[in-house]
Amino acid sequence: MTDAYGFSSLPLADIRSGTTVLVAGPTHGGARELALRMLAGESNEGAIIVSTNERSSRIVGECQRVGLDVRADSTVVLDCVGDEDQNVPARILPLSGPSDLTGIGMRFSDVYRDFQQAGIERVRTGLYTTSTLLTFNDLQTVSRFVHTLVGRIDSVDGFGVLLIDPSNHDERAVSTLAQFCNARVDVRDADEGPELRARGLANQPRDWTAFAPVE
Amino acid sequence: MILCIDPDEDARAATVRAFTEAGFEARGVASAADARQSLRERGAVDALVAEYDLPDGTGLELVNDSRELSPDTACVLFTAVSLDDIDTEAFGGAVADYVSKDDPDARTEVVDRVEQSVAFQTQTSYPLPENEPARVAALERYAVDPAALGGTIDRLAELATALFGVDSATVGVLDAHEQRFLSCHGVSFDTTDREETVCTYAILDDEVTVFEDTRDDPRFGDNEGLAAANIRFYASAPLVTPEGHRIGTFCIYDSEPREVSEQDRHHLQLFASEVMEQLTLRRRLQNEDEPDD
User: Do B262 and B178 have their domain in common?
Assistant: First the structure.
């Protein structure tokens, strides 16, 4: 097992490798930023970003803004939006759309293998967003996809973060998907700024805890 | 059982051999048609390892079909065809893993991948109870042959129907992939894939599970089995072994949505306890008939 994954700018303790966390909160609030920041790690790590509803250039820009060191040899975007962008400093792999869960899963495995062959053993994977997948697919199909992805992340000692906006879905759908993940971090936007609380993780804040948004 | 589909005889033999050497039972077939026939005749398999280019279709079509015949199966596309040349869009909901046959250690990789997926059942479309392998092993220790149970469980199901004033009641156990019914009163269910049953979710915790109206629930809203049996209301209590494993459920159903009282919950739990005690006693009797060593 590789070392735990750290989150230097967030009020979160290190998380054991192999873990996938569901980050739940309003998409345009602190949840998206938090989920993207959880992808930023050490320089020896790779990142796989699944973008279901934003162009590669835009999500890569967001990642850079929150501190991810985006490089073509260690950052891959699985792009379900298309509209291939030029001059993005990451490797972009186009997918036909957010209903191609088979394609996303297979690309993940293939990219992970590429990383491994290039000597990158530690990989963070982020899915932005699970809500889009639920819009385009039935719950059972998304469940199988999430279960499979979480299993792969576990078996390669990676770290995964799945973003979901609970206000768009029946809470029972959200909690079903949460059951496949090892933990859940809820995010809310309080008057003074964003707050998070964790469930299912050791040594993490169980009560609402403020975190500073990126300037 | 691992089903390996590859039209190339040498490649197929090498894949089967890799799985056999790793301790799996493996079988090779040369086409999608042979694979479908095998699934129909021999039933579900643990894993399906398919080449993409098949003489009668693609490996992805086959994976897609297998989700009907064998829904929990770990499916892996094991091929030299690059992902750039594979059209995944048409089978976007099939969900499978991918291992490139071009890698120098491709067969080690595919065996590792399948081993992991089978051990942790990571391609199911439903969440698994904690410690699922121990739960399934616990179930196997109980005599759950309905014929051997006499009329005891049937009588309890009938009594429950009358007591709660509902249409029907069942007692079922959930093995690794299916729910089998020990008794059905007022309704008739065949063995059902776990991804299609409400009890799959009910055995995730120890409490009584109630769905006042299953049609309201995103997991069951379009469930064909419930619609065919005209079921909207569902409540169940888990059958919990003395070691704490939830091996099955005692369920009641009705065609109308309804609420349950605290007393109903308590009574449902009593029915489940009674069934579990019957199963435990019968297991003890069986063990006395066939003493260990």
Answer: yes
